[in-house]
Hints:
By secondary structure, this protein is mostly helical. The chain has seven helices and two strands, in the order αββαααααα.
Amino acid sequence: MAWLxxxxxxxxxxxTPLGYLPVPGTAQFLTIAHIPVVLGGVLCGPAVGLLLGLLxxxxxxxxxxxxxxxxxxxxxxxxxMAGVVxxxxxxxxxPHSQITVxxxxxxxxxxxxxxxxxxxxxxxxxxxLPGEVVSVILFHGAPEAFLAVLVTLPFAxxxxxxxxxxxxxx
Length: 170
């Protein structure tokens, strides 16, 4: 049940203004609601990342009902991708840097999956203009990825990221 606090935080951030920092620009917000989703994927594994991503997506859809495909699917993939990337880094990475490189890679992969998923789905559905894509990725996606790394890396290193391997916590 180590994932339960992350689920509560995901619901709180995903379904309220607390998870979306207003900024000028096309996307209008920096999303921080994806951070507990990424943490869940790293600390508890891909299945928990997927579940937290679903909670994030549904919460986001509840907060601002718009398009469920754009709002839910990328968020599910965000948590799943973070968990899978971390698992692969732990399995195949350098034994001396598996947790550090794995959590850094997982945070970037999860965050960018969220950003690119939302942008590409919005573009495909005609909800975003092609000229807006680069600015959203650079001015919203890049800072969101940086924040995900900033939070995920110390948590993973201090916890030893053992929860994803054993299903529990230390």
